[in-house]
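On clarity, I found the account of how folds are encoded harder to follow than it need be. Since the whole study asks how a given chain folds, the encoding of that fold should be made plain. For illustration, here is how one protein appears when written out as sequence plus structure tokens:

:::
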Amino acid sequence: MRLNLPDCELNIKKTNQDITVYDILRKKFVALTPEEWVRQHFVHYLIKAKLFPMERMANEMSLVQNGIKRRCDTLVADIYGHPQVIVEYKAPSIEITQAVFDQIVRYNMVLQAKYLIVSNGMSHYCCEIDYEKNTYYFLPDIPEYKDLK
């Protein structure tokens, strides 16, 4: 499926009935689901177009929220290893709704990142959180890594 993201070369492998894609952050092949298709394209976009350093990025980061284990789709750390950006992906067929944003906000209660990004591969939203004023605002575009505060 064509996404609203730049094309990228993915290492896709077909074995029997399984189709997998190589995740450059996890350094392994994973099942190629519609959400994974978005994740792989978006990670390549962040690295190539927005110059995010790959060594500060991780996919499927575990976290515990209210005693329940959850997974953050992609986490980007600052130079000190603290969460700076978290990204939530949905399949292209899933509309980005308030419920989707509520999910990433719940993860962020634990992680305390400054930027939240949600994408279904077609639409992308990025908001910056101002913890001092206890508010957030949506940015017109996803910033380059060097422009993150």
About this structure: The mean pLDDT is 93. The chain has two helices and nine strands. Residues 12-147 form a domain with the tt1808, chain A fold (CATH 3.90.1570.30). The first helix runs from residue 34 to 48.
